[in-house]
Amino acid sequence: MLHNGTCTYTNIGYVVTVFKAFRYRFYPAPEQELLLRRTVGCCRLVYNKALHQRSEAWTSGQKSIGYAAQSSTLTEWKKSDGLAFLNEVSSVPLQQTLRHLQTAYSNFFAKRAKYPRFKKRRSGGAAEFTRSAFRMVDGKVYLAKMTEPLAIRWSRPLPAGAEPSTVTVGFDSAGRWHVSMLCEDASIKPLKMLKTAVGIDVGLNSLVTLSTGEHIVNPRHDNRELARKRVLSRRYARTQKGSKNRDKARIKLARLHARVTDRRRDHLHKLSTRIVHENQVVVVEDLNVRGMVRNRSLARSISDAGWGELVMQLEYKCDWYGRQFVKVDRWFPSSKTCSSCGLVLERLDLSTRNWRCEGCGAEHDRDHNAAKNILAAGLAVSVCGPDVSQRVLRNTVQSGLKQKSSAVKSGISAL
Hints:
Elements: E1 2-10, E2 13-26, H1 30-61, H2 67-79, H3 91-109, E3 125-130, E4 134-137, E5 140-143, E6 152-153, E7 166-171, E8 177-184, E9 197-202, E10 206-210, E11 215-217, H4 221-224, H5 226-238, H6 244-278, E12 281-285, H7 289-292, H8 299-305, H9 307-321, E13 324-328, E14 354-356, E15 363-365, H10 366-384, H11 390-398, H12 406-413
Helix pairs in contact: 1-3, 2-3, 5-6, 6-9, 10-11, 10-12
């Protein structure tokens, strides 16, 4: 499921306006699939040519090209003999492709993402249709240049009275077609305010350890299919490049990867929804997952756990339901700090799962102790602000803020 939401505040309370993309599987007819593949291919071509044009202009003459200029260039491309086939598909997805490229450059210059990369055919593709390029009649979706509706498998209904603002059609590397309809979902409203807060420590043995002491087992979805993945990977490697058997082997392997991804995402959605519904304040560590996967011995396990996806889901669901989401600095020594007396160890090996505090003699489970310290530090951040220093965070644990002092209690009740 994709998501995109905005929240607004009023004097009478917390008002949420959420736009959610509802994703469905559909099975196009042969004529529809031919047109859709052509549309997706044209979108990929326009994106790559526009990206190449921007890169060349900057490399050769330090010249910046914007969306308006490339929109005019697209018109010229359609008039040329070599690219006249661009007129065979709807013009709306092609214009949307240029807007997506502009957004990618904006994210790059704002340091929210890396430099845009060229799209590959084997990765699938997508085409976005705005209101002028599709119509919805009696619950059926008709796209531009199509006379028949899409054969959508409605796994769940759209929100009552909702009208899609955009329809995105795409297929993945496994050859599956999906349609995503962006709608305003009025059913998402702020939940009843609670007085509970939770600190979350993520791991590999236990996917999540809560400050309440609960350990949630890591399902290890990838391990369950690892043997089958290796068999299919070897079969794919033995096939001849460019052959039909190679395409068949690639699709089988891609479908297995897709099933694992779907299981992981489904489990994380259920877990994140439960945590957000049960707590008013959710505190997590700001982990550098991209840097952690550089460890070759742990990269596969970390990627399979899906820490980044879990944190992202917790963040936007807290925004949806009126909860407070807090991130603690990644350099805060949550595992090495005693949650009873505040003593900070000089060193704590990753293999050490239980340890005794030399100051107070308390016995600690590594993950549970870290979750309690994360909660204490998160409460300090919620009271003092996100720029609180490491020294203040350590003093917070030592001063007993983890036991919910009166200052923190007042802070939570005011959320």
